[in-house]
Amino acid sequence: MKGLYLAALITGLTGCAQHTEQYASTQQTPTRSASEVIKQAKAHEWRNVDKQNILKITLPTGPAYVELNPQLAAKHTAHIKQLVREGFYKNTRVYRFVEGFVAQGGDSSGNKPIKTANKTVPAEFYHTTTQPLKITELQGDGYAPVTGFLNGFAVAQNATNTKTWQVHCHGVFAMARGNEINSASTEFFVTIGQGPRYLDNNITVFGRVLEGMQHFNRLQRKPVPNTPFNPITNIEVLADIKSDKSTFSVMNTDSQSFRELIEARKNRTEPWFVHAHNYVDVCAMPIPTKRIN
What we know:
Blueprint: H1 2-26, H2 34-40, E1 46-48, E2 54-59, E3 62-68, H3 74-85, E4 92-98, E5 102-106, E6 127-128, E7 136-138, E8 146-150, E9 153-157, E10 163-166, E11 172-175, E12 188-191, E13 205-211, H4 213-217, E14 231-232, E15 234-237, E16 248-251, H5 256-266, E17 289-291
Antiparallel strand pairs: 1-16, 2-3, 2-15, 3-13, 4-5, 4-14, 5-12, 6-10, 7-8, 8-9, 9-10, 11-12, 11-13, 16-17
Helix pairs in contact: 2-5
C-alpha cells in the first residue's frame, strides 16, 4: 500500500510539474495595458447600441440605462418593451434587496393590471442553435464548459456550442419568476453584488446596465416612515424619448482589440502588480462602454 501511495504521489507531483510547465509556456506578456487597449481601439471596433433595445429606468437619484439582449432572449425583450410602452412601470418601486446580491423592482402587490402584454412569458434560460454559435471564448469554469462574450454580453455555452446563455455577472438585468419555470411576468432584478452564477440556467438574463449602477446602489434598503420607498418614476424605451439624446457605444467583443483586452486582463502589467495569474473569469472582464452623447 505504501508503494502504491508513493507511486501515486510521484505521479501527482509529476503532473503538477507538467501543469506548471504548460502554464508557463502559454502565458503571454501583453504589449499594452488594458487602458491603452481601450484608448487605442479603432472606431470600427465599437458599435452604437440600438436605442430600441435600451431601457431608461428613472430612479430617485438619477436614471439607469439597460441594454436588452434580444439575440438570446427575444421573447423576454419583446415582453418587457410591451409592458414599458403600456406604462406598467410608472410609479412602481424597487421593493426588495438582498445585500450584495440583487435589487428587485416592479409591482410588489401583484395587483396592477396588465393591459396589453401577456401575463407571463416562457422561460428562455438558453438560446439553442442547430450549428455551433461562435463567441469570443475564455476558458470554461465550474458553471459551464465554455464561457466568453457575444455581441457585448458575457455568456456561457455547452460543450458543443449549441446552447448559449447570458451569465449572472454584476449589473445584469433579469426577470424574476416563481417556482413554475414559465412564471416570469413583470418583476425584474439587477445584480448589485458579485455575480450569483448558480442562478445560470435557472432564470432568464436578458440585459445589462450600461450606465447608472450607482443609482441602484444608492437605493434605500429599508422603508423610512413618511417617505416613498425607492419609487420608479417610469421605465421607458430610449428610442421613444425625444428629449433624451443619450447614445452609448460598446466595444465589439469579437474585435481584435477586445481579444487583446482579454490578454491584458489575464496578465496585468501595471507597476502595482507583482503576480500575473494568466487567467480571467467571464465576470471579471468589464466590457468597455462609453457615452458618446
